[in-house]
């Protein structure tokens, strides 16, 4: 799971501004710390969509320091980000992955939609097509 460090900054209105040192496009706000952290996940997912749309690799998170807040990207979204970054590192396009998997482009578009509940089996197939495998563990 990718765990991104978060900055929470109180403003003069008593609300908290949310920022991500690793993903400057992700910003949000909340009336209190709990709400700010809840809104932070949505901001992170929205920023990841920007990276996907712009065909840029998604930055991996830096180390969360002691006492620092963080937001955990859910497992499915984490696997999509890692798959995306691997595809780009191999200089492949979504169309190339569609050909490798023998599927139509809409299926690949849904695979890289962070808000779509893709089946993990399809994520595993895509990883195998890139010469990788998905590992899951409980900690």
Question: How would you describe the overall organization of this protein?
Answer:
It holds the Pfam family HicB_lk_antitox. The structure is a single chain. Helix 2 runs parallel beside helix 5 and helix 3 packs across helix 4. The mean pLDDT is 95. The longest helix has 21 residues. Helices cover 44% and strands 14% of the residues. It folds into 2 domains: 70 residues, Double Stranded RNA Binding Domain (2-Layer Sandwich); 55 residues. The relative contact order is 0.14. With 139 residues, it is α+β, with helices and mostly antiparallel strands. The protein is built from 5 helices and 4 strands. Strands 3-2-1-4 form a 4-stranded antiparallel sheet, with helices on one face.
What is this entry, summarized?
The chain is an alpha+beta fold and 139 residues long.
């Amino acid at each position: 799971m990718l765990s991104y460090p978060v900055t929470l900054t109180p403003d003069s209105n008593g609300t908290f501004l949310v920022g991500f040192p690793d993903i400057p496009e992700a910003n949000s706000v909340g009336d209190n710390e709990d709400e700010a952290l809840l809104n932070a996940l949505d901001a992170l997912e929205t920023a990841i969509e920007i990276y996907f749309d712009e065909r840029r690799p998604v930055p991996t998170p830096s180390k969360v320091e002691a006492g620092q807040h963080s937001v955990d990207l859910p497992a499915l979204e984490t696997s999509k980000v890692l798959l995306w970054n691997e595809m780009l590192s191999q200089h492949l396009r979504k169309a190339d992955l569609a050909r490798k998997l023998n599927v139509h482009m809409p299926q690949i578009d849904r695979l890289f939609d962070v808000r779509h509940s893709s089946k993990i089996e399809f994520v595993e197939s895509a990883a195998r097509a890139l010469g990788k495998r998905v590992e899951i563990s409980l900690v």
